[in-house]
Amino acid sequence: MKSKLPHVGTTIFSLMSAMANECKAINLSQGFPDFTPSEYLLDQLSFHAHSGKNQYAPMNGIPELRQAIATLTQECYGRAIHPDTEITLASGATEALFVAIQAVVNPGDEVILLDPAYDSYAPAVTLAGGHCKHIALLPPNYQADWQQIEAAVSPKTRLIIVNSPHNPTATVFSDGDWQALASLAAKHDLYVISDEVYEHIVFDQNRNSAHCYPALRDRTFVISSFGKTFHATGWKLGYCIAPPMLSTEFRKIHQFVTFTSFTPAQYAVADMLNEHSDQVHGLGDFYRDKRDCFVNAMQRSRFTMLPSAGTYFALAEYSAISDKNDVDFCEELTRKHGVAAIPLSVFYKTPPNSRIIRFCFAKREQTLLDAAAKLCVL
Question: 250-261: per-residue pLDDT in tens?
């Protein structure tokens, strides 16, 4: 059989988590919390499951949740969206990303990716028959060079995928970045996928989004994730906001991928948004404390911690410790020192010559302190 993805194997996240489990290491690699969601959210999940909300939900999501999303979007970004025609629930942000890519990419189309990029983008483009053009964001600032990006646009370019707050670099687009993206997309008639799953985890500036720029609204799929927002990554519940024309195309494909998503969770999340939206608005402060706990504990180490402006990740430069490449260094960290991290090079098509790894600080304070203690002896 000829593989459709001949160069794709098991993801680095699965590999590092499996290695962490094998070695009983502290897992700061894969981006999931080691603490539970709110008791209210769990109680509402149980309530709705026991109340009979266990059958198929509408393909685009239950009305109560779509309305709550519309209200949240208005509160956060001042954008009024129609809950019936512009919001579609999905079984996680990864599904939404895949569906959005399939909706607009045709065989032979080119798609611009900004590396380091989340590892689901390129395979989805390949499966749609498209071709990726990779533009590298370079350390230590990982800033987009919009002149370089525009130079990569050709008559075949159909889509650009952006991610802010950015996994894995923990950077956040400035207003200038969003303005440059809007200008580029309009000038070259490009579609945009804005991966905003960490949208509420911003530390050093106000939350910003493609939602805030009218020039982007008619051409952009904005992808969000309740798993990140409510510490429930295993629920696999995300959503896509797009104008009616793009939402129609999105739903044509979504209905044949998962059709619908976990019904009791949709009702529970709707209740959470309606009754406890303060937890969404307080998420930046919640994770800022965790970032500061970990970064402060790492000050005694020989790692150089890079700035973390958003997400629940922090990058660390380790050239003072080892000259190994980042994949080998992460394996050594896990097997010999009991802490699992993610090598940054795997997010690039052509990695820069740097020694930088990613830690996840979506953990209990004691977990972070225990991990830092092990890392500080290197």
Answer: 999 999 999 999
Copy the structure tokens of residue 115. Answer: 């590396």
Structural domains of the chain in order of their starting residue, each with its CATH number? 12-30+282-375 (3.90.1150.10), 53-276 (3.40.640.10)
Three-state DSSP at 335 gives helix
- pLDDT score for 14: 83
CA angle 212, 217, 220 (to 5 degrees): 110
Outline where DSSP puts E strands in the chain.
26-27, 87-90, 110-115, 131-136, 157-163, 191-195, 220-225, 238-241, 304-305, 313-317, 339-340, 342-343, 356-360
Q: What 3-state class would DSSP assign to 316?
A: strand
CA angle centred on 344, ends 133 and 29, rounded to 5°: 130
Rounded average pLDDT over 130-143 = 97
pLDDT confidence of 162, banded at 50, 70, 90? Answer: very high
74-79: Cβ within 8 A, 24+ apart:
75/277, 76/199, 76/200, 76/207, 76/209, 76/211, 77/207, 77/209, 77/211, 77/212, 78/211, 78/212, 79/211, 79/212, 79/217
Give bridge partners of residue 88 from the DSSP assignment.
240
Closest alpha carbon to 195 in 267, 248, 283, 124: 124
Tokens describing residue 251: 């739903």
Task: Measure the CA–CA gap between 348 and 141, rounded to whole angstroms.
Answer: 16
By DSSP bridging, strand 356-360 and strand 313-317 are antiparallel
Q: Could you give the CA distance from residue 336 to residue 300 in angstroms, rounded to a whole number?
A: 20
Give the position of tokens 């980042």: 326
Which tens digit of pLDDT belongs to each residue from 232-246? 999 999 999 999 999
Q: What is the pLDDT of residues 59-117, one digit of tens each?
A: 999 999 999 999 999 999 999 999 999 999 999 999 999 999 999 999 999 999 999 99
